[in-house]
Write a structure and sequence with these properties.
33% of the residues lie in helices and 18% in strands. It has 9 helices and 10 strands. Strands 1, 2, 5, 6, 8, 9 and 10 form a 7-stranded mixed beta sheet that branches. A 3-stranded antiparallel beta sheet has the order 4-3-7, with no helix packed on it. Helix 3 packs across helix 8 (240-247) and helix 5 runs parallel beside helix 6.
Length: 281
């Protein structure tokens, strides 16, 4: 008969779960990508009623959400370079509609230096765009998923991708979006959606998956819940820290679930840290 000590050792071995902090301390980088809604429903940016209006003294809701979430995420990204995209606008020079264009208009290098670089690229691109539509978010999810898919070839906990989507409206490519999210749930990737303005965001709640398992149009369920939706209006009068904490609340568990599910250990796990840390201020 095995001794109690042996049984304990076996149970410990079976239930050894690495924490979010283990992966971060092991060198896992958070790759943070931003996608901003430039559809016409936001209103003409030159009009003070527009969600994209640049007030000289007061940041709009897009900027508030971007800075609140981005400033936390950038602490987990060593090079502080963030790809930033737009969707739903006609872009120069041909003014064709795009749903995944670089807001710095450099398709070969869409990265911006720090969150401030994203803010500057956003403010600079606004006068050059024609806000249009529809609100299609599947293309940008697929773009980031492609990078996350390439990361799976390393078989290491090197990079985990977070896509922050800032949008004001009802998604018009819901079937394709569900398909894209189901595919992304198999990858080292999470999707955060912040709803800006006062639109009906009930479809977003469905993507979140908290009220039931999200499925593709063909019925395939997500492998794991990777979407977090937060309406900005719930935090209009709260601190940026409160918004960031709510938006990022599920990310540590999503990171751990992915790597533990794949049996991927931290690259250099530190036994000093046994407890998980929250990705929040």
């Amino acid at each position: 008969m095995p001794t109690p000590e042996l049984i304990t050792r076996k149970v410990d071995k079976i239930h050894k779960m690495h924490s979010f902090l283990d992966y971060i301390m092991g060198g896992c980088q958070i790759q943070f990508t931003v996608a901003i809604d430039f559809t016409a429903s936001n209103g003409d940016p030159r009009n003070s009623c527009s969600l994209h209006y640049i007030h000289p003294y007061q940041p709009n809701e897009y900027l508030k959400a971007l800075v609140a979430v981005g400033e936390i995420c950038q602490d987990y990204d060593s090079d502080k370079m963030f790809p930033a995209f737009g969707f739903g606008a006609r872009i120069p020079p041909e003014y064709t509609v795009s749903h995944d264009f670089a807001i710095n208009f450099n398709e070969d290098n869409p990265e911006c230096a720090g969150i401030q670089g994203v803010v500057e690229a956003y403010q600079s691109c606004l006068p050059k765009l024609q806000l249009y539509g529809p609100t299609n978010i599947a293309p940008i999810i697929q773009k980031v998923a492609k990078s996350a898919s390439e990361e799976t070839n390393t078989k290491e906990a090197s990079q985990y991708f977070i896509l922050l989507i800032l949008t004001d409206g009802v998604i018009t490519d819901m079937a394709d979006t569900r398909e894209a999210i189901v595919h992304a749930s198999h990858l080292p990737m999470s999707v955060i959606i912040v709803g800006v303005g006062n639109a009906d965001f009930s479809d977003m709640q469905m993507l979140d998956g908290d009220d039931g398992i999200l499925r593709s149009p063909k019925g395939e369920p997500v492998l794991r819940d990777i979407v977090q939706f937060v309406p900005f209006r719930n935090f209009k009068h709260a601190s940026p820290a409160a918004l960031a904490k709510s938006v990022l609340a599920e990310v540590p568990n999503q990171v751990v679930d992915y790597y533990n599910g794949k049996g991927i250990k931290p690259k250099c796990s530190s036994e000093m840290y046994e407890s998980s840390r929250t990705l929040a201020p």
